[in-house]
Amino acid sequence: RNMSSAGPEGRKKMRECEGLIDSLVYYIQGAIADHEPNDKATENCVCILHNLSYQLEIELPESYAQSMYMQRRNISNNDKTPGCFGTRSRKVKEKLQDTPLPEEKSSPKGVESLWHSTLIRIYLSLIAKSTRNYTQEASLGALQNLTAGTGPMPFAVARTVVQKANGLPGIRAMLHVSQPAVKKTAVSLLRNLSRNTSLQNDIAREVLPDLVSILPECVPGCDIACETTASICYTLFNLTQSSSHNARLLLSAHGLPKVIAISMNDSNMFSKASKAASVLLYSLWSHTDLHSAYKK
């Protein structure tokens, strides 16, 4: 577990070590099957896999990267458009998000297991069944790592979490735990998931009211709570930016007074949360059909 956090070279050596990842997955599967998701060894295994999934998209061996990104390269070449904000840029982004990964192997080996749907379901199972904070945080963190970035792997993992494995109820429950680090990681995972335009309505329907409910009435006083607040605001920004319906959901959940209060704190110490709230307010105001509702 300590070695797996030793940096890029350490992660590379451990990913390449024959049988190591397979053994970790095998152990966790056994623990879940035996209804023992809370033992220390399971926690260690999940924390190792969490660390080995860090920056996985960037650090993938060339052979995986080539096969995985060939389709993506073809799409972006076919849809080149001049300027930073070309009219088709959103369509290109949506196409890239929908680019499928090469078909999953039924029996993945080694590094392939790290983004396979089997392990994604294991993480979601541990989030739901374990009461050990480090195990919950590492499972959420591994999914957060796998959904970071803009390639086909993060978006394929996001679709598996939201649509194929029905993972949102378990993640939603983690928003209400008392452990700040677990809550922060759950929000960061939702922020990654909410970047996928095809999943935004599902996420909004399932968790938007919960996100609003855990927003503080003003900027919190500690760093971790401040970071969590900023992440919530950016997640709500993603969910409402292109959807008047989702913006109305935020309004009906009584989120607007909270966002305004957070945005008005101009202290440097809390500027991250205040800036995020201001960005969200600016986006909400772009829905002109809601102006009268906002004013009320």
TrEMBL record:
What are the record keywords, sorted? Cell adhesion, Cell junction, Repeat
Q: Where is this protein localized, as stated in its record?
A: Cell junction
Q: Which Gene3D superfamilies match?
A: Leucine-rich Repeat Variant (1.25.10.10)
Q: Which GO terms describe its cellular component?
A: adherens junction; cytoplasm; intercalated disc; nucleus; plasma membrane
Q: Which residues cross the membrane?
A: none
* GO biological process, any: protein localization to plasma membrane
The main location class comes to: other
Q: Give the family per the record.
A: Belongs to the beta-catenin family.
Could you tell me what this protein is called? PKP2 protein
Species this chain originates from: Catharus fuscescens
Q: What is the lineage of its organism?
A: Eukaryota, Metazoa, Chordata, Craniata, Vertebrata
Corresponding gene?
Answer: Pkp2
